[in-house]
Amino acid sequence: MNPVQNPDATTEPATEGERGGQAAIIAETVGAVLAHAADALQQGTAADAAEIQMITDAMVRLLVGAPLRSDGKLTIKTLAEEAGLRRNKLTHKHTGLKDLFYALVKAQQGPPRPFTDKEREVSDKQKKDLTRVRAERDGLRTKIQQMARIIHVLEVENHHLRESAGTDGIVRVMRGR
């Protein structure tokens, strides 16, 4: 039985699937309550209650991982697409549902797990390798710049030699600097 349904159950860390189910139950319950409250208080129209129901149904589908009309990402844009509404309905009119969706998505993701020793060792090795590769890259850049200067000097000297050879084809030695 689910801890949401049985408050006496021991609180064990929920798996990702259970968190999605819990979030979907919360979304469905809140949506039903909001739609019923809007009807009871006569604040909104029947269209408002229908929008609330469409949004909460879309929340449930996204949170359990079974989207019908969207790519399944947990964003407001996708929620609006899944509900068949324009995005501004969530960002301007039903801001409470938008905030609820963000809270449920955050709760569904759960706390990050700590690194294991092996993962930490791999990460340290990758950092050392990255440092070594960057140093090697910088050394190669320096060598490339030196080679470019040498090539330029040789091209200039070659050009001067060709000019000094003249038409007779004899190459004359240039004096050192």
Automatic annotation (TrEMBL):
Region described as Disordered: spans on this chain: 1-20, 109-128
Top-rank taxon, per record: Bacteria
Basic and acidic residues bias locations: 115-128
Biased composition (Polar residues): 1-13
Protein name as catalogued: Uncharacterized protein
UniProt organism field: Streptomyces variabilis
Phylogenetic placement of the source organism: Bacteria, Bacillati, Actinomycetota, Actinomycetes, Kitasatosporales
